[in-house]
Amino acid sequence: MLLRTALIVLAAMTTLAAAPAPDPDAYLEEIEGAPALAFARAENARSLPILQNDPRYAGLHADALSIVTAKDRIPAVDFAGEGELRNFWQDAAHVRGVWRTTSLDSYRKPAPQWRTILDLDAVSAAEKANWVWKGANCLAPEERLCLVQLSDGGKDAVEVREFDTRTGAFVSGGFVSPQSKQDVAWIDTDTLLIGRDWGADTLTESGYPFVLKAWKRGTPLSAARELFRGAKTDVAVQPAVLRDADGHVQAVIAQRQVSFFEAEYHLLTAGGAKKLPFPLRSTLQGLVDGQLILTLEQEWPEQGFREGDLVAYDLAALKATPATARGVLVLRPSESQAIEQVATTRGRLVVALYENVKGGIVSFAHGSDGWTSKALEMPGDVSVSIASTSERDDRMLVNVAGFLTPNTQRLADAASGAGEVLKTMPARFDASNLQVDQHWATSKDGTRVPYFVVHRKDLKLDGTAPTLLYAYGGFQVSITPSYSGVTGKLWLERGGVYVVANIRGGGEFGPRWHNAGLKLNRQRVYDDFFAVSEDLIARKITSPRRLGIMGGSNGGLLMGVALTQRPELYNAIVIQVPLFDMIGYTHIGAGASWVGEYGDPAIPAERAVIDTYSPYQNLRAGKPYPEVYIETSTKDDRVHPAHARKAAARLKALGYSYLYYENIDGGHAAAANLNETAKRVALEYTYLTRKLMD
């Protein structure tokens, strides 16, 4: 005990000694403070005319607006209720969007007959509000009653209202939960399981709820009964209700997110909460045929499982004797594979399985002899994603896309393997003279890192091609081949090269790829990115004069590190809704929730690593920084606009040229509607054109 106390005191002393001087830009952390907003408006007034007065901006904006508001986009439909398909749709006439429904037979036609469920533009106008759609949680199996989530300007915080899809109206006297960062699940028609801000000391240090309550219809929110309580140091506690294919409740679960990547699962029973015996780094994926499906992000030698495995547990056995339940291996990916998605139909388990960042679908059936599998026929060298699955049968909707392959929506049967193409999006740009290559760069520690290059077939390898490199590198998020109409039209069609780097920190090769870049090993992520940049230059695809980079959120942090560590490699950097002050990030916005990814600046060993790459603290005078373009949103309550603001303020103080745009609305997407999205995209590509094509 004395030794432990001494270590704590030493750690505290070390942290105190390393404490930075007062931050002159701290006022920018007040998200809607008058001085902070005055800073943002002044920066907008300076930067926007530079880009919008460029003679190319108008054409780029017109093309972007035409693409993002096009009516011949493929609707993102979901199975719902008895034979319904539902979709939330935005276009030029419905900027905020309409929630609508049709039948599968009608949807198969070129012009389906849609019935509007909810018109968000009309609601916003009537209520004089800037509502942004954040989804709806509907009560199975009928899915008539839904909990609609509305966000003020794009915030993560939402207002929840009960809505009747049959009458097309909010339920009079129904469930209404005021604005909060909150999660809610139906237990039955008259009962919700809800986590939200309940008052003093009910939000975690990250700003998310950690107290779950049961809320009965007809009672005030204040009368909800507490069922589970986590800790203030958790990231969050979230509700989950598992149902069988007929909609009957099989388990009510509290998911206690003790860190961003570590979770405990507790069965909520009449006798109290029962903790399930899963490792902290595991993810509950669903329930099928009485089997609880789990993916593992760590080794589990006690049960013979490895990092990346897909396993199943009999739910009845877990309920009866959780401590002695044994799992069964369903799938163990190879070194070149990754489980990208897991979903369930009425009787099948389906997995989007990737091989060297190229997708496919595998369907599993559970029987008396265990699990059997079959691969579904899908196009090659593309991304494949499971968009929606049916609980009434084994059908699922699958999206297929590639860099040059417009999105195709397929209806597939997970049992028989039969399928049909429902919709194919028209091409948004001329790809007839384009091709895609996959190359591999070697990182500083010898790891081979793949990347895709989209370019003209007649590309001259003389280092003169304007090239845009995109990457993310965090949170086990995979960046797979995708079709972007705006990138194709505004960049590729005009002679640019587009590159996507699959660097560590992402999930392109499963948990091991992500885990390799965590905390103390963060520099590997950045070394991977620099290796791809250098490989592009070595192949003479481009040169530092013609190489630009782009990334958002965690990718925005990557851009900041590239700026401060290797500025000589780039002539343009688009820094979107970034993290930037990594010494202070844990007290800005939801930053405390990401300690599992980056480490804690309060811990000396982790602080020492963060000190080496935090862009805000590593900006210096007299460096060969290119003129960067920074963008954020005032309404971003996840990453927080302070990071972008402080980046601009520090660059200004050091005398550098830069451009900055802060959208007053938009949330973490930096755009609250399609018009704002078109503006954001046009600004980005105007900047890139000026820097790389002139």
Question: How would you portray this structure in words?
Answer:
The chain is globular. The chain contains 15 helices and 37 strands. A hairpin with a 6-residue loop joins strand 5 and strand 6. Among the domains are: 296 residues, Rossmann fold (3-Layer(aba) Sandwich); 97 residues, no CATH class. The longest helix has 19 residues. It starts with a helix and ends with a helix. The chain has an 8-stranded mixed beta sheet, sandwiched between helices. Strands 5, 6, 7, 8 and 9 form a 5-stranded antiparallel beta sheet that branches. The chain has 694 residues and is α+β, with helices and mostly antiparallel strands.
Please summarize what this structure is.
With 694 residues, the chain is α+β, with helices and mostly antiparallel strands.
CATH architecture of one domain: 3-Layer(aba) Sandwich
Number of helices: 15
Regarding CATH, which class of one domain?
Alpha Beta
Q: Estimate what percentage of residues fall within beta strands.
A: 25-35%
Span between N and C termini?
66 Å
Rough outline: globular
Mean pLDDT: 94
Evaluate the radius of gyration: 25 Å
User: Helix fraction?
Assistant: 10-25%
Q: Using DSSP, what is the number of strands?
A: 37
CATH homologous superfamily identity of one domain? Alpha/Beta hydrolase fold, catalytic domain
Class per helix and strand makeup: alpha+beta
Sheet with the most strands, sense and barrel status: 8 strands, mixed
Poorly predicted runs are 1-20
- In the sheet with the most strands, the strands line up as 30-31-33-32-34-35-36-37
CATH topology call of one domain: Rossmann fold
